[in-house]
């Protein structure tokens, strides 16, 4: 199985309605393909960890890299894993004003909880450490 972490810059504004649509679309697409992970959005930047079968992760990454809604797509981590660190796919962003987004399946309160808050992160993966770095960056 593959774990791939990338970062990118939004090329269009992402307001709560667009974020809600992105969350729903991504969750459906990833569930159908057997992908898990986490997508974070902060100050116009995305960071995502994708986990799943190698070919599926690479195909999805190629689609993401070609998506005109963001630019400067860079791989930060590409590693084989024995088991998933993220059992489902979710998305987090700091302080969303939209209640619909907060209630959407797959929304994660990642930015609202202390760093390394998850018990499963006792021995964090490099991908999880990158997510914590993204949370703290200015």
UniProtKB/TrEMBL annotation:
Organism field: Frigoribacterium faeni
Origin: domain of life: Bacteria
Single GO molecular function: FAD binding
InterPro entries membership: Acylphosphatase-like_dom_sf (IPR036046), BLUF_domain (IPR007024)
Protein name: BLUF domain-containing protein
BLUF domain span: 1-92
